[in-house]
Design a protein that fits this description.
The chain is mainly β. It has a single domain (about 1-620), classed as TonB-dependent receptor, beta-barrel domain (Maltoporin, Chain A). About 5% of the residues lie in helices and about 55% in strands. It contains five helices and 33 strands. A hairpin with a 5-residue loop joins strand 18 (about 350-365) and strand 19 (about 370-380). The radius of gyration is 24 Å and the shape is globular. The chain starts with a helix and ends with a strand. About 45% of the residues are buried.
Length: about 625
Amino acid sequence: MRKILVCLLHFIISNTLFSQQCDSIYTDKMKGIGEINKIINHSQIEQNHFKSLSQLLNEQAGFVINGAYQTAGSFINIYSEGALGAKTLILIDGLPVWDPSSISDDYFDLNFISLNEIEEIIIYKTAQSPTFGSGAICGAINIITKKAKSCAPFNLKMSQGIGNLNTLTSSIQFWGAKSKFNYQFSYSTAKSTGFSYANDSIGNQGFDNDGFTNKIFNSRIEYNPSNKLSFYGTCLYSHYKASTDIEAFIDTKDYNYTNSFLNTAIGGRYNIKNMQITADFKISRAVRDYQYAPLNTEHWGGLTQFAKLELSSKLSRQISVLVGFDYRNSQLTNNAFDTVNGASALSFPNAFQYSIYSGINYLTSDSTFSINLKGRMNVNSLSTTNNTFSVSSNFELTKHVNLFSSISTGYLAPSLFESKDINLGNPNLVSENSTSYAIGFELNTRHLENRICFLYNVVNNIIDYNFNASAYANCDKLKATLVEYDFRSELSNSFLLYGNYTFQIGKEQTISRQNFTDTITYDYLVRRPKNNLNLNLNYHYNNHFSITLNGKYVSNYYDVGLGSNDFLMKGFGLLNLNINAKIYRGLTADLGIQNLLNTTFYDTRGFNSIPRIVNIGLSAAF
């Protein structure tokens, strides 16, 4: 039974995943001006206070986050730049996080972190493996956590929120600086009775609600003994419990899961003249406990270690270089019990990777042209050696017009489960690989910013479950073409209009979802609509009052049909409203309404999406 469930789960996933002392010591990797990235700043995060991280990412160009609109704690999949799910690497403060306890090694559960812990988000477009290594096959998302913002010895902020669906949220954060130290600690909780994960297509079957509770602790301590030397330590712990349903249109009783994630890191930075040396070490542990019935349980545990040593230097005003080394180790454990087969356990060997990478950036003396070259060699114990590269350039044609282009390659190493599972694993798997091409331009004036980017991604050797061989295999290919447009317009001193539009088409070669035998090519992308539009209109007054109306539209798209033709899903439009008002000094009130018009829609066939959700909250800062 467990083998059947795992096979079904993977088939669904693979087709639906388809220095001043108060300054942070975190610095991003050296990147060329031509690199294509997007920053979601702290102000935008605050304007979306009551949304989840996955919902906010779902409003960015080039992204479809499947599960973002389902009941809290649902399975989340990131589709980036037209690619299948689990092809985008997640980083926390510049360090990669991955989860061996999931089927794909690149998967990270976005439910483990909320917007309450985040200062800003950096989205990197195209393949980013030369910069970040395995997993960044079609991009990367760098989540920058909150850090000390003030040189005062002690600062405090408390928040409390309530909403329909019996939603209750609370958080406390305190931070400060003393002598050569600064610190930040936060703790947040959330709970909701939610709504039924599965859709009651008949309407009177009495499906139960699938609730969610979580708690998150985040901390950071920095020590700066001199202007040249800095050290830090961080700890993020997240724990949540959720109820769910196994199948579309079917209510499942007593199906719960409890997931936890612990991420700790230490590191330092040393600056001397035009050189910087950075060292980081991180340990993470993810635990997933599933309860299929009162007596049927399953446990998955993943432990990862990451170490990095990096040197960057500015050789001259025009030339900068970077060299580095990183090491990754993954461990996986599993045990289960059911009333038919009794107790069982699976054993997996450790897996490791190590990489050597380098980069050089050239900038002309007048700063109008730059070119950035990067390369990485990666040795993987589960697969062959990978070599990746990237070339990106930027040309300032005029004061207002900027041209950029890039070509890059990426890779994703096989996971422990895909390679070493005794029933389904294939020790002969090779790494998935990709090539990304991008070209575009920016047109910026005093009150208007525009950026349009044309992207073409090719992904080969995609690992999928092969029903013919009853094991995992490198049996899928994908080609995707995208046009992404971002804009930001200051309509007046008080009104701001910003948003994005994505057009994407593509083809996937994979095992037939109809007969599970033939290899066929689908001329569309599952769960990735051709047209995706996000618009935001913001009104603000003297930093004391802000109201943002957010609109989203997606066109018709296909969902997976297992054993039948894929299903054509109806597109939908959504409106959301966020209001923020400073009542008195440090006292702030927030109102958030998602699905303002209470539209009935589905982003996954057979499973419900959010009704109208209203949240109000108060926060006080001291």
